[in-house]
Amino acid sequence: MTMLTGHLHAALRLAEQGVPVLPLREGKGPMGNCRACRKNACGGRQNMKTPGPCVCAAPCHAWAAAATDPDVLASVAWAPAWRQAAAVAYHPGGAGVTVVDLDNVDAVAWARRTLPATRMVATTRGEHWIYLGTMTSPNAVRPGVDIKSLMSYARWLGPGSGTMTPLPDVVRALAVKEPAAVRPASRSVTAAAPVGGGECPHRSPAYLERGIAMAEQRIEEAPGGIHRTVYRLFLAVLSVHGRCGCLTEAHIDRLFTAAQGKGESLRHCEDAWSNAAAALGM
Q1: In the chain, is it the N or the C terminus that has fewer CB atoms within a 10 Å radius of its CB?
Q2: Is the full-model pTM beyond 0.85?
Q3: What is the distance between the alpha carbons of residues 29 and 148, in angstroms, rounded to a whole number?
């Protein structure tokens, strides 16, 4: 058993109430993968299709490492993490709840107009609205609004105020993806073939397919910072294929689909694509 720190003491109190907890490092991020579980080999979000605990002895898989067993939380294996911890987080889905994370005043105002009242916890920039029930955990379901429930974690900021109410359909509906095309056909970003009729140096189907597949894979495997990752990869694809007419709507749809699969909204995808094109002078 390790020495009780302030964060560990708070975590143990929550665990007694059946709330799965884990330590957060500075910057509100989870602890990094341990050697045995590098790249989330035994339970990280990227590899798990359904919620479940991490089988690793150390807290290296964010939501999947959250525990309620006091012997695990206070074990020697977890001691370094608690010594480095800057905060305590919990797995809302494991506690049977959903957190609507409202990240700014505009998002809070929208929630007050739109969502049923429930338990509220103040955050540094907005509020957490907590409902009884679980669902998937998409990010950026609308400006300034994320959902944290299954396969996700939220910072513990206190019990909050108000009576927790059942998860409403209006919140569940936020996770439903738009059925429309991934990007509007009217906003073409492909470029014409080089002036002078020269043959495109990249017009090899295998070359282009490999580039798109690599971009899809890197988006799907991104452990965090998805906005930055999507923009960087869109920029890379455009820098190689954007001026020679190689790209088709089908290729762009594949990139947008991969990004939306990681929680990016259609608007964020369009913004990232437009910003990348502008950065390259297209």
Answers
A1: N
A2: no
A3: 14
